[in-house]
Amino acid sequence: MSTVLTPSSAAPERTGRVRRAGPMLITGLILLALLVLVAVLAPALLGDEARTLSDRRLLGPTADHPLGTDELGRDLFARALVATRTTLLLTVAATAISVVAGVVLGLLVWLMPQRIRDLVLTANAVAVAFPGLVLALVVAAVLGPGAMSATVAVGIAGIPSFVRLTANMAAPIMVRDYVSTARLLGVPRPIVLGRHVLPNLGGPLLVLSANSFAVTLTELSGLSFIGLGVQNPEYDFGRLLADGLPHVYVQPAQIVGPSVMLVLAGAAAMFIGDGLAARSDPRLRSLVRGRRTGVLRPARSAATHEPDRDPADSALSVRDLRVTTAAGRELVAGVSFDVGPGEIVGLVGESGSGKSLTAMSAAGLVPDGVAATAGRVTAAGHDLLGPVSPGDLARDVALVYQDPISTFNPALTLESQLTEVPRVHLGVHRRRAREALAESFRELRISSPDTRGRQHPHELSGGMLQRAMIAAALLTEAKLIIADEPTTALDVTVQAEVLRRFVAAKDTLGAGMLFISHDLAVVEALCDRTLVMRGGQVVEELTRDQLARREVTHPYTRSLLAATRYLEPTEETHP
Amino acid sequence: MSTAAAVRRPAVEIDGLGVVLGSGAHRTEALRGVSFTIAPGCSVGLVGESGSGKSTLARVLAGLVPIGSGRVRIGDEEFTPGTSRRRRDPGLLQLVPQDPYSSLSPRRTAGQALAEAMDPRRADVRAHRTDIEEWLARVELPAGSADKYPHEFSGGQRQRIAIARALCVRPRVVVADEVTSALDVSVQVEVLELLAQLRVELELTMLFISHDLAVVRHVSDEVAVLCAGELREFGGVRQVYTAPRDDYTRRLLDSVPGGPGFRIRA
């Protein structure tokens, strides 16, 4: 098996459940462990040294005093390490105030009637907009300078942003079915919040708390620095910075200790936060690991295939297509088929059968994270294993995707997206293209076809967008149409209409079509030939007549057929 | 349908139900003058395409959408435009939601999900262990499922958990909202057969909602066809499928691929 695109070092996807900590998280955790160690040990081991006055004042770095001494002759290296405990404790306390109060309030707003909730959240938004440090200054000034008041001040200043984050993150969970079902089961609202909402916020909140720790650290140190925080004889990093500042031109080493410690503590929190975020979001994780766009490659051992048909004669010709994950799992295991001009070939299978991957790879579109190889892929006369002009491909191959909503660019009108191929590649005049689109819309029973083109995707329902995409696909002079579950999202009456249009288009355009569906009944009605896929392989190939006469041999096709029959209307015909 | 059921007082009575959603430019009449009844122990299939108002009807019955006009009676409880927001007894009606992925909390095991239904406040799994296992077995889930999390189940298995959760309350009425539409064809059949079997076993009074006429056949005694907020047809399964009285019902039947009236070639 070819593994051209698979770096051997790539972590196997299968171990997805046992999520590995990334290098960022490990770095952060090691840093944090060191800081905690220092915070625990330094006051006991170096406390005396940090307190002892001597007459060796304002020294530069020496062998005895690696960072020199302050104006009272105390060792600055010892002081920087000893200050770690106070700084970390105060920062943890302040962060805890922000997080706990913020999360509780953010959840409580969901117990309020909507009107009051809106009011509270608006007031909170104003508080968020107010600079946190200024708010902390005001609170600290009111409470009087001191470690306690600075901690409370910074803690309170951080609450509004956590209220907002919690309330916003809870919003999509509140409308989930499991929340409404719990309500229906008679679970009281406060219990719903604690049982269903809070646990599902856990991951993101942890990430945000770690990041908030870094912000709190700088704010607290800032307050100590300007004299509103920790007071003499106590000291934290901010206090040490303030003490060293007057002498910074004489002895720059004075501020090195607290600065480095501040940076280390902040970096530890940030690394942990980002590491946790990357771990909880698999998409981000793969981005971190290095994104690679899937490419279709010629198979290495290009087994000579019998030249059963000249590829130029068929709309689509695929030989020995294989799609493999980075972990080496074969999603598509050697699929070969042809689609003749004017022929509709159905690709049927259930989820996970590899039918969509096969279809998309046949159009040269290989998703990220998998490697695709083939002995031959010729679409509308273009050899996709070699260089192809994207313009020619866009003209000759039309695609209809499964999910219409994510296919459209939300910022552009339908018209500019759907008439791109005729306008750009076929040189059709803009007005002519627009009229043709409106005509195609009309045939697919899209309401108000003349004005639809000027709308943006969000103004149409999913079913309507799907029809618009099909209308556009039928508009081009494509030699091959690849449609991935094009009617799944549609109502049955509309589906029937769309299928009729496909049949008509085949007759008039003479285009070949690859039609992917999970619905054997649809495929039976539409397709000239049907390929049944399961587990990445084509298990059976049937002509229309064979399928109509139920001449199937593979047990899987039989069970699929039985399930489909079960879901059809009664066999008794209505008059 | 048995004649005895027809004589008894209906379990659900929907009378001239009207619902308006949104206001101003977005105002839509989701339901208009809909009336039908469901006899005790009887199952009604509610069919309609997108925008027909079938999901709105389910949400009205569940008390999630207020009644605009008309009235709805479930068991002995009567709901009118003024009372529709009243707090309800969970034993009155339960809903099996459409999407098996969003209907179970990812952080709660199957056992916890069922325990919550049996004991909404404490949701103590240990206290209800035997009941939970009995219900999971009833929906044909393998032993040991109680301690597994939703991501360890397939879509069809999740839907079975959701069904067990709704039924273990022993509600007077069950509303199943498109419970098969997110599933693979063969899994759809399994879930439908399970529901058909449970319907007989537990004498369920059920409203089974689907966009697909073909699907409701196996689990319904009667069929209601909704189109654009209006009830187009209501009748016994056999009559609706073999001799539809309404043009829309006929068009719907003819649009089902594989059905006798399905034609896409000239």
Automatic annotation (TrEMBL), chain A:
<dbReference type="InterPro" id="IPR017871">
    <property type="entry name" value="ABC_transporter-like_CS"/>
</dbReference>
<dbReference type="InterPro" id="IPR003439">
    <property type="entry name" value="ABC_transporter-like_ATP-bd"/>
</dbReference>
<feature type="transmembrane region" description="Helical">
    <location>
        <begin position="88"/>
        <end position="112"/>
    </location>
</feature>
<keyword id="KW-0812">Transmembrane</keyword>
<keyword id="KW-1133">Transmembrane helix</keyword>
<keyword id="KW-1278">Translocase</keyword>
<dbReference type="InterPro" id="IPR050388">
    <property type="entry name" value="ABC_Ni/Peptide_Import"/>
</dbReference>
<dbReference type="InterPro" id="IPR003593">
    <property type="entry name" value="AAA+_ATPase"/>
</dbReference>
<feature type="transmembrane region" description="Helical">
    <location>
        <begin position="255"/>
        <end position="277"/>
    </location>
</feature>
<comment type="similarity">
    <text>Belongs to the ABC transporter superfamily.</text>
</comment>
<keyword id="KW-0997">Cell inner membrane</keyword>
<feature type="domain" description="ABC transporter">
    <location>
        <begin position="316"/>
        <end position="560"/>
    </location>
</feature>
<dbReference type="InterPro" id="IPR000515">
    <property type="entry name" value="MetI-like"/>
</dbReference>
<dbReference type="InterPro" id="IPR035906">
    <property type="entry name" value="MetI-like_sf"/>
</dbReference>
<protein>
    <submittedName>
        <fullName>Dipeptide/oligopeptide/nickel ABC transporter permease/ATP-binding protein</fullName>
    </submittedName>
</protein>
<keyword id="KW-0067">ATP-binding</keyword>
<feature type="transmembrane region" description="Helical">
    <location>
        <begin position="119"/>
        <end position="141"/>
    </location>
</feature>
<comment type="similarity">
    <text>Belongs to the binding-protein-dependent transport system permease family.</text>
</comment>
<dbReference type="Pfam" id="PF00528">
    <property type="entry name" value="BPD_transp_1"/>
</dbReference>
<keyword id="KW-0472">Membrane</keyword>
<feature type="transmembrane region" description="Helical">
    <location>
        <begin position="147"/>
        <end position="167"/>
    </location>
</feature>
<keyword id="KW-0547">Nucleotide-binding</keyword>
UniProtKB/TrEMBL annotation, chain B:
<protein>
    <submittedName>
        <fullName>ABC transporter ATP-binding protein</fullName>
    </submittedName>
</protein>
<dbReference type="InterPro" id="IPR017871">
    <property type="entry name" value="ABC_transporter-like_CS"/>
</dbReference>
<dbReference type="InterPro" id="IPR050319">
    <property type="entry name" value="ABC_transp_ATP-bind"/>
</dbReference>
<keyword id="KW-0547">Nucleotide-binding</keyword>
<dbReference type="InterPro" id="IPR003439">
    <property type="entry name" value="ABC_transporter-like_ATP-bd"/>
</dbReference>
<dbReference type="InterPro" id="IPR003593">
    <property type="entry name" value="AAA+_ATPase"/>
</dbReference>
<dbReference type="Pfam" id="PF00005">
    <property type="entry name" value="ABC_tran"/>
</dbReference>
<keyword id="KW-0813">Transport</keyword>
<feature type="domain" description="ABC transporter">
    <location>
        <begin position="12"/>
        <end position="253"/>
    </location>
</feature>
<comment type="similarity">
    <text>Belongs to the ABC transporter superfamily.</text>
</comment>
<dbReference type="GO" id="GO:0005524">
    <property type="term" value="F:ATP binding"/>
</dbReference>
<dbReference type="InterPro" id="IPR027417">
    <property type="entry name" value="P-loop_NTPase"/>
</dbReference>
<keyword id="KW-0067">ATP-binding</keyword>
